[in-house]
Amino acid sequence: MKTDRLIPSMFHRRLALLMVFFLLGGSVLLARVARLTVIDGADLLAEAERRLVSERWIETTRGRILDRKGRVLAMDRPAFDVAVDYEVITGEWALQQAARAARRAHADEWLELSPFERDALIEAELAPFQNELEQMWTEFARVAGVDREELERRKNSIIADVNRMAVSIWERRRLARQEELSRERETIVDVELADVARPIREQREAHVLLHGVDDVVAFDFRKLAEAHPGLSITDGVSRVYPHETMDTIVDLSTFPAHLRSPQIRAVTVRGVATEVIGWTRNRVFEEDIERREQATGIDPTDDLGRYLPGDAVGSFGLEKLLEVSLRGARGRSIRRLDTGVMERINPIAGRDAQIAFDVELQANIQAILDPALGLTVVQDWHGNPPERLGQQLAAGVAVVDVATGDTLALASTPGFTRADLQTESDRIFGNQVLAPAINRAFARPYEPGSIVKPLTLVTAVSAGVHSLDTRIACHGHLLPNRKDIYRCWIYRDKYGLTTHSQQLGGPLDGSEAIARSCNIYFYTLGRETGPVRMANMYEQLAVGRGFRHGLELGQDGFIGRLDGTPLEATDAIFLAMGQGPVSWTPLHAANAYATLARRGEYLEPALVTTPISPRSTTDFGWNQEAVRIALEGLWRGVNEDGGTGHHLNLDGRRERIFNASGVRIAGKTGTAQAAPIFQDADGDGEIDRDANGDLIRLRSGDHSWTAVLVGPEGGEYTHAIAVVVEYGGSGSRVAGPIANQVVHALQRFDYLPGAAP
After folding, report:
1. Rounded to an integer, what distance in angstroms lies between the CA atom of residue 498 and that of residue 405?
2. Percentage of the chain with pLDDT > 90?
3. Dihedrals phi, psi of 234, to nearest 5 degrees
4. Residues 621-664: tens digit of each pLDDT
5. Of 5, 356, 539, 544, which has the maximum CB count within 10 A?
6. For the purposes of burial, counting CB atoms within 10 Å of the CB of 536, is it exposed (0-12), middle (13-18) or buried (19 or more)?
7. Alpha helix positions (H), 648-749
8. How far apart are CA 703 and CA 450, in angstroms?
């Protein structure tokens, strides 16, 4: 059908054609309006409302960490923060200023210029503003006392954090929009990231580049802010650790004769429990955000405690472990520009955490471990090869309160301060032998050695595989026809291939076997008990799973290990001796001895007491007569002449290892096999060789152990102590004198009766 029949008039045909064009153009506009109102309406409305709201964050205060007596170990101290606008940090400010200058200079022709021409004019105006920024950053570095390289690192860190945050938020918006549109249209709709990529708050705010400056530095920055753009000085905080360095005293009159002096030595201890308390950092990582979201269950956009770039974040130790409770939530001041209405959400301070530590006791034990006093240096009476004389020894000490399970001290040597992390990182993290970064009291596992023997006795008797009436003869070796394996420690040429049965005139009972540390007795018990029961003994004592209550500090070694599935019969023989496929920490050892003192009532040790989940005891059902005999053997081991922990031989003279008065002490010494440390200077995993092609061995030998129970004379045992000295050799000669000094420290701080001499 012809058009002129439907619309006979030329005028009307032209009018109809105009209407078609109008409708086509209108449909495009309507589609655009629909998109703006329906699809993007919520975001645009929110953006418009945000522009009518002025917000200001109100900083919170991080919770303190207190020791058991209320002494502050970590706290926020008022200080000043220096912040810089984000566009100044990125350099975008210079481009913005150049664009404004170009538009002003070419206002009459600006609209007619092409984008290329505009960019050229902006480029011509850029240099003065870039020079201003460069001058500002130079002055900033000078006033802050940092070099430009460090300053650039901080700027780049903030830019990277903000970019990650923006992408995360945009992706969340994209997925939400995609799900919403797909649900409305009943089909899958793809939404591009660019459709929702609008600037986030952190891209419009100032960010802290310098935390916790004092008032003198803040004053200099205020003068700098008057001359340069984008700088602001705000109230802030500095995280401080008041007891990181402490002075304490050590009485040298109770030391072994070769180190003894009538003096009382004042010792300055640097880095008191640094690796336990930990530290914070002012950089936020994606995992920090994810960890908080998992812990709180709050969407980050609604969380007033959420991380912003430059926030303090627990990075190590208790600061990291207790991050959620310590952090608190910032407040917010809101003013609506259209109505003038003010709203305020007050900040919520972080919760304080009280720990079981006694920081004075901790500092004193760290002083005892100071190599300057000699107990952690190879001495001629240690029995080590002469070429090792004077070598520094790494050591760890754990102290547990028997009644409560409180962890009173976790000392380690060598140590470090938080400042050392910045200036001596190679010493802290690069020393293969001494490895200061590791707290040996809880973060590195060792084979238990002979200190496990009383627990083996209790396990065998409680399992019904051994009777306390049964004595076991020590022939120097377990197997009748193999004198070269499974030998007793005294069945050696230097001891005349003697045996404990020869020394005692017959077979040994459990008490004698513990006191004398007879290997054959416990090899036999291990064979009778079997691998399953022996493994279960260690598992009951938390080996392989570690502890809770503030002791989940993140080091993998802390949990110990129990390898080998299935275990062989020979594994049981070694496990009974504290050797083979097992390792634990001094904290495990101290807690095991505390369990023995409680006669089989297991109480998990605690480092954090507030906040803390309830703890309950578990009755292991140990045979009580076996426990009594084990404790008797431990007492005899340090109080009878034949006990392995009784005395030192110094220049032909016998000297008691434990010399504190007014207390009752029971304990066990031991040595544990240790893999050699070979040199890998460049850290490539390949062991270095000397000129002859031989592997370079940095350290070898056995680890030295001593574990003791101590309490008032005539009373119950109140404290358990475990000491390990890496590659120290003899437990009695090396670890024993350290354990003795820990007993004196407990007296000095009134945990035990009697004054340290």
Report:
1. 41
2. 56
3. -125, 160
4. 999 999 999 999 999 999 999 999 999 998 889 999 999 999 99
5. 356
6. middle
7. 736-748
8. 11
